[in-house]
Amino acid sequence: MPSSLRTYLQDIRKETVKIKKEVDPKTQLGDLVSQSDQPLLFENIKGYPGWRICDLLVKTRKTQAIALKTVPDQVVPELAKRIGKGPGKTRMLKAGPVKAKILKGKEADLNQIPFCLHTPKDGGLYIGSGMCVVRDPDTGAQNVAMHRIHIKGSHRAALNIFSPHTRRIIQKCHERGQAAPMAVVIGHHPCFEIATNYFGPHDTYSEHELAASLLGETVDMVKCEMSDISVPADAEMVIEGEIPPGVMEDEGPFCEFHGIYTAGVTKKPALDIKAITMREDAIYRHLNATPFTDHQSLVALPGEARLYDQLKRKGVDVRDVHIPAWGGLFIVIIKMVPQVEEQVRDVLMTALYSPVLLFTKIAIAVDEDMDITCAEDILYSIGVRMNPQTDIISIDRTVGLPYDLSCADLPGAPPLRVGGKLGIDATKPSLLRKELRSKFERVNPRGWGRVFLKDFM
């Protein structure tokens, strides 16, 4: 059976909380998602009988490990290895589960899908989970990226386009005086979402082919109804539309990945809806754009894997890399075994200026005995193993991101900002100083690793 959202929901069934009580997607669901650490499946959606909504599918290392069929502490190394393999195989089919219902024209009404309100001040209902596919009119190559989509009416939306690849393809179409076709894929195995958030070089293949490598299987594809774009056959739904040249819509405001509003209402490209195809009993894959949700995990994972690979290639004994949601995606943590202290400083500088990371302004290095997904362990390392006089790298006046309101506006270069970067060495003394290193060994309780509270309850 091909991997899909449904096979994955089966894989995580023991982790998933099923909510049978009626939930309002416009007033309740956003906050309920933010309260949970476990995957959620809402089975009774107010105003949308028969629909189900799922979220928090890969928030934790445990569920990420299930998606990649590995163990939690090997998520990043395993993902790095699979990304390194490059594209996998896809094959075209004449039909697939996503074609069970085909709605065109007036029937392709966005109002029939249970889109959600993420946060109270958002400008309207949003799609956060849409894997947006465009096709290069010159080469036929496809690009897939997640762009936030503001629902503006029954057959129109506004697009906040993040990917420069997508922008270039749309521009090519518009320069020809043509509308740019786009297919919005919603709901599939998380490996498709991880691949979609990969932002490294891939000019010769699409993110769907990368998803095939992450899954280790051939991905079935079908052709769209209204364009030559191909989409995964086992997706839950596909919204087909086109972006007309010169047509703009008000978009926003919208709460960003770090939990604050950084922009108000701006003009963005319009997406006119032409068709919707879906499974017979489609599940809506929601992705709530608030802190500590899948939103941050999916953005972080490919960057974690690529930095891990970059450090490995430099000869660093790196064990794991984590970009925690609780750091607003501005912090990267590296678990490593330092050979010499200077190596830690080199790792920190690499992380702070690595082209494979999007938002980093703080890098923290910890030793191999820390759980880098645990904020308590990180603060413990900083408190016990870091000397502020010698173990901090502070860099002033660097270019900041438009999203980072802690940094000042950069005069004459909007929307860039000016700020700084910080490196923190919270490792034990290096292997070169074994005697001193041994004094920093963490003391565990008697019975550690041999007795478990759950066995006594």
Keywords:
26% strand; alpha+beta; 2 domains; ten-stranded antiparallel sheet; globular; Pnp Oxidase, Chain A; 457 residues; UbiD C-terminal domain-like; six-stranded mixed sheet
Please provide a written account of the structure.
- This protein has 457 residues and is α+β, with helices and mostly antiparallel strands.
- The chain has 2 domains: 87-285, Electron Transport, Fmn-binding Protein, Chain A (Pnp Oxidase, Chain A), CATH 2.30.110.10; 314-439, UbiD C-terminal domain-like (3-Layer(aba) Sandwich).
- The protein has 11 helices and 23 strands.
- It has helices spanning 5-11, 29-34, 61-68, 75-84, 164-175, 190-196, 207-215, 294-313, 341-352, 375-385, 434-439; strands at residues 17-19, 40-42, 52-55, 90-92, 101-104, 126-127, 131-135, 142-146, 148-151, 156-160, 180-186, 219-223, 230-232, 237-243, 248-251, 266-278, 283-285, 318-322, 331-336, 362-366, 392-400, 408-409, 417-426.
- Strands 5, 6, 7, 8, 9, 10, 11, 14, 15 and 16 form a 10-stranded antiparallel sheet that branches.
- α4 packs across α8 (294-313).
- It is globular.
- The mean pLDDT is 93.
